[in-house]
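Q: I'm writing a short methods note and want an example of a predicted protein-small molecule complex. Could you take the sequence and the SMILES for flavin-adenine dinucleotide and return the bound structure as tokens? Please keep the output block clean; save any remarks for afterwards.
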Amino acid sequence: MLNRIFKYQFATATHTPLCIIGGGTASLNVTAQLSHRKGINLSHIRVFDPSRFHYYQPSWTMVGGGLYDAEKSYRTQQSLFNKKINFNFNAVTKVIPEQNKFITDDGREWTYDHLIISTGIKVDFKGIKGLKEALDDPNCPVGSIYWKDYATKFNQFAKEFKGGKAVFTEPQMPIKCGGAPQKVLYLNEERFRRNGVRNQTSIEFHKTIPVVFGVPKYSASLAEIIKQKNIDLHLKSKLVEVRGQDRVAVFENQDNKVLTEVKFDLLHAVPPQTAPKFIAESGLGDASGFVDVDKQTLLHKKYKNVWAIGDSSNLPTSKTAAAVMSQTPILVDNLLHIWKQKNSEASLPQKYEGYTSCPIFTGDKKLILAEFKYDSVVDETFYRHQDKPHRLFYHLKKDFFPFAYWNLMARGIWYGREGILPHFLKTITNTF
Ligand SMILES: Cc1cc2nc3c(=O)[nH]c(=O)nc-3n(C[C@H](O)[C@H](O)[C@H](O)COP(=O)(O)OP(=O)(O)OC[C@H]3O[C@@H](n4cnc5c(N)ncnc54)[C@H](O)[C@@H]3O)c2cc1C
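A: Understood, no commentary inside the block.
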């Protein structure tokens, strides 16, 4: 009898009006903002994520630079998501959008009226031969800020570094936070100076792409910084293999495919990153594999009840939490417009212009605050030259942003660079 009930439960799809795949930055921000909206029954929302923990990933750069404790970079999902929202600790393996249905890794089926995809970008440590083995070897001086434990490992080796060759790498785009591989480089160049080992150290920076940064204004400033810091820059140089035991990194020249071996004493490696596979397998992706949405409305180009936000979308902007903060109110307004107010796509009220931001530590308690939108058009918030390193920006990134993330964003009252004002205005005009 019990067996029959069990089987029946598993054979029937569970319906939830709004399903969200992924419980990272975008999902938390969207659900927190929805919780303030009028007429939203939070039990009509269901989030899926196999991870028990939620990570504030931007802090991992600071972990690798010796400025932040990795233990402060994560919290349990339960402590952050509203208790009234259903949370399933499962990965979604396939979506069948024609049937408004998807399947989770335990074989269960789920149906929805609206679906939001926010599964981020997949960090592929195995995408470079030998890298994962070198990272997992506690005695090998190889680390990466693209995972908390590898960031901690890198920090430890960098702290104890006595000089030699320090090599930093950056893969092909897209990656999350395109500036992060440089931030960790500059923070550690400063650390080597502070620790008195800079004169005994040569630093190489290998970038796969042919420019220092994607936005010309900031690229020029950063190129100058690289020169001043006497860093040996290699453009179009892609890390293809790490031989941890021999302390050798192999690079491929992107023009002529010639391989060069570089002996290192310390290696910071950034792995290639790709769209989660289930997106393409569900027919929801574009040629790149990311969810194919309208770049202004965030609504899927084919399925008019599927949305995407953040790193798993194909929005042609840099993949950052700052971009997510800017996308969230747009997605929430547009979603409610169709879902609750039963309006058509033609009259969607909000348009995303591609805003994103990359706070680049340049060492010596300074930071360049790069802000731009679609087509790499500079879109700065402050009345000063943001391509020049400044102390104020350093404290924004190091001290204020982590506070804003855990205390304001997670509560749905943070609107990115617009701060908490829109929330306050909506509250007093009762427009939630
Ligand atoms: C080292 C580093 C430095 C960074 N620095 C900055 C910075 O300075 N400024 C900035 O703005 N941003 C920065 N970022 C980028 C920022 O963290 C991301 O852009 C942001 O987290 C994207 O949010 P998201 O919700 O799209 O993805 P994520 O926050 O990555 O969340 C995705 C979630 O989806 C889940 N998931 C994956 N697959 C499935 C599946 N099949 N089913 C269910 N769940 C799934 C994952 O477990 C994860 O919890 C940095 C990131 C890194 C790694």
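A: Remarks, as requested: Residues 21-27, 48-49, 51, 57-58, 60-61, 91-92, 118-120, 145-146, 176-177, 180, 276, 278, 310-312, 319-322, 324, 359 surround flavin-adenine dinucleotide (CB under 6 Å). Residues 5-9 have pLDDT under 50 and may be disordered.
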